[in-house]
Specification:
The complex is a heterodimer of chains A (205) and B (357). With 205 residues, chain A is an alpha/beta fold. Chain A has six helices and eight strands; from the N terminus they run βββαββαβαααβαβ. The longest helix of chain A is centred in the last third of the chain and has 16 residues. The mean pLDDT of chain A is 87. Helices cover 72% and strands 0% of the residues of chain B. The model of chain B has no long low-confidence stretch (mean pLDDT 85). Classes of the chains: A alpha/beta (205), B mainly alpha (357). Chains A and B meet through helix 2, strand 6 and helix 3 of A and helix 12, helix 13 and helix 16 of B.
């Protein structure tokens, strides 16, 4: 599903990724380990082309991310991403957050998009929050909605960029529960974790 | 800090007086302030209200002991409001004013912030311009004869309405990674902001026609309108840029990660958030701009301030300058104060809507 081959990435003189090679099979869950600053987020961001790689190759579902002709927008629409700080759109309601890219990118009509959104809100247990603005919700709720928003695009894989690091301890479990359910349903997932922090089911030792 | 700062504040009149009379220095300052206020206010109130003449002729106003001559304003009101516009056609600028004010009020109500509002503006302004200029079964009135409040209003709303999209483009250009848009936008913003509005107006009205080929007559009002629009655009651009900087770059990443293009992400995610942040700055720019439009007097156009000044030069009513300026001052103050109050209301409303469902 995701092939990372000899990838190198530098910020100025600092080489973040040095000849990095990895493979993520379809339906598998890969946890990227390492202390903070070791390039986990950078690797994740390279997979959907938010960062450009200097050399090497990343192939997602048969499409090369780094090839010049690749339609990155189309690729990103098929790879879900969840951020550490949720990044819901604050001026839009929860439902509008979920609908936006379905309507604009996948060209679903609004009713079909909202139906899909409600199914996913149901899956993360937040249907009753659909008409609220993100600021009215707890961090754990916002992150579950961010996951639902990514899933609404029917992605082939999900990237998690430290999804629980910005959460209070009591909210981590609700997000992990959603992620575990997702993994059990066979979603291809990549998620970094810091050592000693509760990662997904896998330990990072 | 004085002792009053740490004491639990008392309620009612004691609190008001307690702070101002607490010690000798406060008491002295309070007394001084009252004396100064009274010495200004009392004569003004006598002049403006008690001794004022509300009806009658110029001769009545010139009798001994008469204060403000509001009869002058009543008599000259059509001229102050509409300038040299042909008297029988004054219903047209009046109606145009109503149309433009309705658009402004609609724009101020968040419930009207829908896509149709842009269409309403285009249609409304077209109607207002048709009413002013004529054609299509209305007598033509050249822009030289336009004047008064409609001119002030038109310069303000078209200036701000055209300045906002221009400002957004300039702000985006200035933040662009590409050198050409960045340098162009930076140059425009810095040059226009670095030059007084008077100079921008001179440039628009005197230099631009010279630069164009001779024989091409460009309307002076149109040039002035273009000048103030660019001026508003440059100031709004800096406000928008400030707002864009407040939106974390991660928001753009999140939008891009969903597959939205750069334009879609900017238009649907980043800009709406940025523009909300800068509403207070917009309001203060709008109020300042509304007042700045009076500078077009220097290129000989008859906005509200200029028509009022001219009204006091009418031989029949010679010399009632004070009344003219006080009246116009009140119109500007009323407009500015209303918009400022609106800004405060809107800020509170926005804060609530992003905090709760």
């Amino acid at each position: 599903m995701i092939e990372i081959r000899n990838v190198t990435k530098s910020f100025g003189k600092f080489r973040v990724l040095d000849d990095c090679t990895a493979s993520v099979a379809k339906g598998s869950v890969v946890v990227v380990c390492g202390p903070s600053g070791s390039g986990k987020s950078t690797l994740i961001r390279c997979i959907n082309g938010l960062e450009r790689i200097d050399s090497g190759e990343i192939v997602v579902d048969g499409i090369s991310v780094s090839a010049p002709g690749t339609d990155l927008n189309a690729l990103r629409a098929r790879v879900g991403m969840v951020f550490q700080s949720f990044e819901l759109f604050p001026h839009r309601t929860v439902l509008e957050n979920l609908d936006l890219a379905q309507v604009r990118v996948l060209k679903r009509d609004r009713r079909a998009a909202s139906e899909r959104s409600m199914v996913l809100l149901e899956r993360v247990g937040l249907t009753d929050q659909a008409s609220k603005y993100p600021a009215a919700l707890s961090g754990g709720q916002q992150q579950r909605i961010a996951i639902a928003r990514a899933l609404a695009m029917d992605p082939v894989a999900m990237l998690f960029d430290e999804p629980t690091s910005a959460l209070d301890p009591e909210m981590i479990s609700e997000v992990l529960a959603v992620m575990t359910k997702l993994a059990e349903a066979g979603m291809t997932m990549v998620s970094p974790a810091r050592r000693g922090r509760p990662a997904l089911s896998a330990g990072c030792e | 800090m004085s002792a009053t700062a740490t004491a639990i504040p008392a309620r009612g009149p004691r609190r008001v007086l307690g702070g101002t009379l607490a010690n000798f220095r406060s008491a002295t300052l309070t007394a001084l302030a009252i004396v100064i206020a009274a010495s200004v206010l009392v004569p003004f109130v006598r002049w403006a209200l008690i001794d004022a003449r509300w009806k009658g002729t110029a001769a009545d106003c010139r009798t001994e002991g008469v204060g403000a001559c509001w009869a002058f304003i009543t008599h000259k009101l059509p001229f102050i409001m509409f300038g040299l516009y042909p008297a029988v056609e004054r219903w047209r600028p009046a109606l145009a004013t109503v149309v433009m004010l309705s658009l402004v009020i609609a724009t101020m109500l968040p419930i009207c912030w829908r896509r149709w509002l842009i269409g309403a503006w285009i249609v409304g302004l077209a109607i207002a311009l048709w009413l002013m200029g004529g054609g299509l079964s209305l007598t033509r009135v050249p822009t030289q004869e336009w004047g008064g409040f409609p001119i002030t209003l038109m310069l303000t709303v078209i200036g701000l309405g055209g300045g906002l999209p221009l400002g957004i483009l300039l702000a985006l250009g200035r933040r662009s990674q590409l050198p050409l848009p960045r340098l162009t936008a930076t140059a425009v913003v810095e040059v226009v902001r670095g030059v007084p509005l008077v100079a921008v107006l001179y440039l628009a009205v005197l230099v631009v026609p010279l630069a164009l080929s001779t024989g091409v007559e460009v309307d002076k009002l149109l040039l002035a309108q273009a000048g103030v629009t660019v001026f508003a655009g440059a100031y709004l651009a800096e406000a928008v840029r400030g707002g864009l900087q407040m939106v974390p770059a991660r928001r753009m990443d999140a939008a891009r990660a969903l597959g939205l293009t750069w334009w879609q992400s900017t238009r649907l995610v980043v800009l709406p958030e940025a523009l909300r942040i800068v509403i207070p700055a917009f309001i203060s720019i709008a109020v300042g701009f509304f007042q700045d439009t009076s500078l077009i007097v220097i290129i000989g156009l008859f906005d509200l301030l200029n028509t009022a000044r001219l009204a006091a030069q009418d031989p029949a009513w010679l010399g009632f300058h004070t009344e003219a300026y006080v009246f116009v001052g009140l119109v500007y103050f009323a407009g500015s104060a209303l918009v400022s109050r609106y800004g405060l209301w809107l800020e509170r409303r926005m804060a609530v809507s992003t905090r709760r469902a």
